[in-house]
Amino acid sequence: LDGVSRLVSGGRWDCLTAGDSCSSDEACSPRLRTLRQCVAGGGSVKLGPGARNHCENAVTALLSSPLHRCQCKRGMKREKNCLSIYWSLKQSVLHGLSLVENYPYEPVERGFDYVRLASQVKSEVGMTTVNRCLDAAKACNVDETCQKLRTEYVSACIAPSVRAGPCNRARCSKALRKFFDRVPPDYTHELLFCPCSETACAERRRQTIVPACSYEEREKPNCLAQLRVCEADYVCKSRWAQFQHDCQPSELTASGCQQENYGACLVAYTGLIGSIITPNYLDNSTSNVGAWCSCATSGNFRDQCNYFLGHFHDNNCLKNAILAFGNDTDLKSATNQAPGSNTKQILVTSTETTTTTIGSGMETEQNILRPQMPTQMNERDRLWGDSTLPSPDPYDASPAAAHLAMVMWLLPFLLLALQL
Q: In 63-126, where does DSSP find H-type helix?
């Protein structure tokens, strides 16, 4: 689609197209310029005594233009430009107008049946094993886009830089966002949310996004400091708004989600990966997730900081979405429970009996990125799986152990990158 005819879902305009349309209109263009002056820098203060009225009049007029309901597509070209147009109007709430919208991105369709992805991925590579983490890695290798972008981000996250040292975090984060924005959830969700029942599998799952470069630091930074940086960036701010909306918990729904859409919650969660508040598994012994930050130095703002962490640590919607994905639990079956039934208990209980069987063919470092033809898993693969190097003990937090584990896990990626 091109130019003025470009629309997004629900008949809404693409914000870039809406902006171009407004700029070329004699009546709309001056109001858009006024709006940008209102939002930029010190806002209405720079425009003189009557600035507040000018700003409010401009916003009121723009409410009838395509800018009012425009949206952006996650991962689109010029995404930041698109989001800047969206937030210019939405931030006008500072001038006394309440313009409440969910978030800038197209909503995830309610029919997104993510629980069928496991069987779909397995069928593509001809697998009959019950180790979905292994199946997901091999399925990604078979898909050209998934394999290419996965190799790309791993290479970016382990390649040393003269200026950035052993890890160029900005380059790593950009490649991660590209992977999760452009590769279908069929592959990304299976790689990130596949169920594990032992620490070796869980550690490899935790290392999926190469945390040592993508977000980990020796000392955990303050969560509120990270959130302030996030909210000052159009992309991060938009991803955070999407996550808060689509993963909003509720005690009044059987699913535990206000929107009752597990698929949308997981899409929103992966949208945060590659940002300054990148979440990941907290350890290799549970499926608990969170951002790499702390509230230890929050002082009088400890409650605000804990509230931020609670979006991950105490979020039943997010927890149930991850558990349901691992259990192949259809959201329809969860929402059809009788009123008052405790779906969360059902999900938590069932995950103990439906997770990966130990010894059924663990994912090996050798085959994690190697393209493979669809085939049944043979005895040689099982032997390689059985010889997988064990992960560090979850209680061994020594830097040496963690560094050794990272080096051993990333070695095959580095060798593959050098061959490209």
A: 79-90, 117-125
